[in-house]
Amino acid sequence: MNKRMGWLxxxxxxxxxxxxxxxxxxxxxxxREVIRCINASAQQYKVMMQRLDADRxxxxxxxxxxxxxxxxxxxxVGGFYPGALLYLFEYTKDSSLYKEALRKMQVLEKEQxxxxxxxxxxxxxxxxxxAERLEPKPGYKEVLVNSARSLASRFNEKVGCIRSWxxxxxxxxxxxxxxxxxxxLFEATKMTGDSSFYRIAVTHANTTMQHHYRPDYSSxxxxxxxxxxxxxLKKQTVQGAADSSAWARGQAWGLYGYTMCYRETRNPQYLxxxxxxxxxxxxxxxxxxxxIPYWDFDAPRIPNAPRDxxxxxxxxxxxxxxATYTSGKESRGYLRxxxxxxxxxxxxxxxxxxGENGGFLLKHGVGNYPKNADIDVPLIYADxxxxxxxxxxxxxxxKGRL
Length: 402
Prior knowledge:
By secondary structure, this protein is mainly alpha-helical. The chain has 13 helices and 9 strands. The strands form 4 sheets. A 3-stranded antiparallel β-sheet has the order 5-6-7, with no helix packed on it. A two-stranded antiparallel sheet has the order 1-2.
């Protein structure tokens, strides 16, 4: 899809959204549904709490064997469960959710010194960042700053990026997912006044914008650099359908990441990037009517390819924020697309009934399709961004922004 055709489709999307009736009572109905889903999510996670060992974190669930798959604190997913608990506590004020989040954070705390992963933003900001936002404590600040230092240690000046994977020291691997971890660095600058964190974050964002993105604003999954001089060696995928394809969750990470970068810097370049990515996604001819994407926009067997609620939840949350940084028809278009996604995610087609789905909130996620890993299963990161999207929509309503 070329850039000109993309803009034409996007304009048609905006016009169709504006011409469609969207009465106030429909929006109020969605607000009520969002509140119902927040409360139901709190009850569902109490089911999860009963199944989890004290030092384990939920990853997914396999229906065939009723098997709850868990991890220790080291993998990238550790921060999502306590983070989702904190989002649910924020509305419900259910102290059992808060206590469970704090218990899991005690297990996670040691990862602040982990310099072997680029995922410390996911791990520590989604958990300790939300805890600090709700009830600031010196201990949380210390964990977040130490985590940012660990993340910053992976930055290479020649490349201009934070290293993602360590599997081959001779090749500097950077995945689009890494955009999400920059929020931790921005927060560390605000907490300490040390601008080096900020500089690393914007340098990584700028390098990624230059090398990860195609002319149509779709993103490669992985870019491999020469660590000695920063030259690009290869662009490819690991989790997408092909090196040239648009892996859905990768597109979601980019949209969310550049929207967040604009929030933290107010650099209009990042806003423009986010708008272009949103245009690519929302005007894409293979985005389903319910707005929950296939696992890859170029996946084989569409329309019979699996959907990925994790990509849908991330995009939904990002669009709710992007709508607040734009105006007029464009802003309303983003909001209405996010509302459609929320309606879908709150429906029985994607949302589990209380007591089912191993305690997870959403069904139909895709982890790594090429490796035949975690296909059509719940995913803890889908749950996290779903609870964030619910929170963001609820707050927009309370502030009169809907």
